[in-house]
What we know:
Layout: E1 5-7, E2 13-15, E3 19-20, H1 26-39, E4 43-45, H2 53-65, E5 75-77, H3 100-112, E6 121-122, H4 126-133, E7 144-148, H5 156-164, E8 168-172, H6 194-203, H7 207-216, E9 221-222, H8 229-236, H9 245-252
Parallel strand pairs: 3-4, 4-5, 6-7, 7-8, 8-9
Antiparallel strand pairs: 1-2
NADP nicotinamide-adenine-dinucleotide phosphate (NAP) binds next to helix 8.
Amino acid sequence: MAIPCVELSNKMKMPALGLGTWQAPPEKVEEVVKFAIDSGYRHFDCAYFYQNENEIGNAVKQKIKEGVVKREDLFIVTKAGEELHPKDDKGMSIPSDTDFLDTWEAMEELVDCGLVKAIGISNFNHEQIERLLNKPGLKHKPVMNQIECHPYLTQEKLIKYCKSKGIAVTAYSPLGSPNRPWAKPGEPVLLEDPKIKEIAVRHHKSPAQVLIRFLIQRDLIVIPKSDKPQRVQENMKVFDFELSKKEMDVILSFNRNWRAVPVLPAVNHKDYPFKAEY
Ligand SMILES: NC(=O)c1ccc[n+]([C@@H]2O[C@H](COP(=O)([O-])OP(=O)(O)OC[C@H]3O[C@@H](n4cnc5c(N)ncnc54)[C@H](OP(=O)(O)O)[C@@H]3O)[C@@H](O)[C@H]2O)c1
């Protein structure tokens, strides 16, 4: 089944489900991406910081060469970054004093010279978005804000705000990022939530499929990561069932404003985004 697309404000179509690639080891990711393309994935969420973009590029090149896909069929997201998060001896990020409005201008040039088709933001709170939208001489509006979102961090206010500005939202860590390196014992494990499991049993689906479907039904774009072929396939089988309004409301009520990815080493950065309410 083809994955449905969402139309962005620049009229580009983006598949509502993509494959996350953070922590996909370089020695595995090439095969996984090839498998995902064969299975029907057309959207890949990447970053220079994930240190596996060369291998992902090789997989894409191979599948184009085989005639399985054309480059224009694929929506490939990447994120700007120069250095791999330089840190001081206490493990805290060494802050950059770059103004994100200047970074945005540089990104606008990438659109103007045809190197990228669309530009967006990630982890911006509504005050930062407002500042960007009010930038004098803004040439290209952000089409997307990629933020953490799942039943324990439902992000209702920020999503409503983004939508009111025509900005689509991608939900990252949709399964609660169970393999995040900084996980501590006692922290909530979304995939093990008994109420999610109960809903999954009712629909003959897995907890992961319920978590992904919950976000799809909120008109979000979702990017679960797996480097296991079976799960890559499982995670895309979310377009053949529907959660009821009551189930959606119940899952929304699980919100506890809990972040899997609080980016604590950057907590003192001038642009640390998670201190604002939304
Ligand atoms: N913009 C940002 O700041 C930002 C931050 C974080 C993440 N992201 C993006 O969002 C993507 C997804 O977030 P995430 O990687 O943090 O976490 P996630 O997608 O919530 O969870 C991924 C984890 O769940 C496991 N998993 C996947 N499918 C499963 C299934 N069907 N059943 C059970 N376990 C399953 C995976 O293990 P296996 O791989 O072993 O299957 C992996 O450890 C990232 O890969 C990245 O592309 C962006």
